[in-house]
């Protein structure tokens, strides 16, 4: 089904105690969409991504990945995934890249990249190693395969984390401020890899404060405010005449 959304989120809500952090968020990503999620700190961007890959469980709403709805059940008055098997499957379809890299420090870069395909997907190790080398070439760190994460710069570690996520052949890549922890001179090398992925047609949801990425690479921009989508649209509209006052004020802070 060519027109099935890769990712569809319908009216998800999430509270922590009395604090409703997500107040009804909906979004649809079709094949090749690159969606930038912008918003002030505390607006719920990370919680939104974490609900999509089930690191948090939304209280209400629907999440569909590549046409498959994540089934929920009620337990003790709260939402829970109905099937751990489905959770594992859905997670393997969503590549996640965090601000803090999160590589396994006791494993080499190559081991980090093949871990998921070998142990989760149960694919033959030799093929995974070959693909891992190709992925490391693609992100520009072919020479770091046998190094440990601590011996890499932050930009190299983040590119390794992207390679590790890609090794699972995800349907959608989720990025949560992938360049926010990097020294300024290392941001560009990570954004270049992300841009190349976008140009290859990867479906991506990117929480970022990099306005140049939002403007020039993504095909849709979503502006979150206090747990809701305040406005969204094509970057030309969002950064042009279509900007709402709230969004204009927000991106003004980033020199937009
Ligand atoms: P953003 O990524 O946009 O900065 P977050 O999704 O991290 O926003 O956080 C949104 C709000 O939810 C914040 O007020 C934050 O303190 C709160 N929050 C996030 N995670 C938790 C948690 N596990 N427990 C309680 N409050 C949380
Ligand atoms: Mg965040």
From TrEMBL:
- Please name the taxonomic classification of the source: Bacteria, Pseudomonadati, Pseudomonadota, Alphaproteobacteria, Hyphomicrobiales
Give the protein name, as stated in the record. Answer: ABC transporter ATP-binding protein
Mark the transmembrane ranges.
none
Question: Could you tell me the superkingdom of the organism this chain comes from?
Answer: Bacteria
SMART domains assigned:
AAA
Q: Which CDD domains match?
A: ABC_HisP_GlnQ (cd03262)
Keyword Phosphoprotein appears in the UniProt entry: no
Domain (ABC transporter) ranges? 7-251
Q: Say yes or no: keyword Membrane present.
A: yes
Instruction: Describe its membrane topology.
Output: Peripheral membrane protein
Q: Which family does the similarity line name?
A: Belongs to the ABC transporter superfamily.
UniProt organism field: Aquamicrobium soli
State one Pfam family annotation: ABC_tran
Q: Where in the cell is it found?
A: Cell membrane
Keywords attached to this entry: ATP-binding, Cell membrane, Membrane, Nucleotide-binding, Transport
Q: What is its main location?
A: membrane
Under Gene Ontology molecular function, one entry of this record is: ATP binding
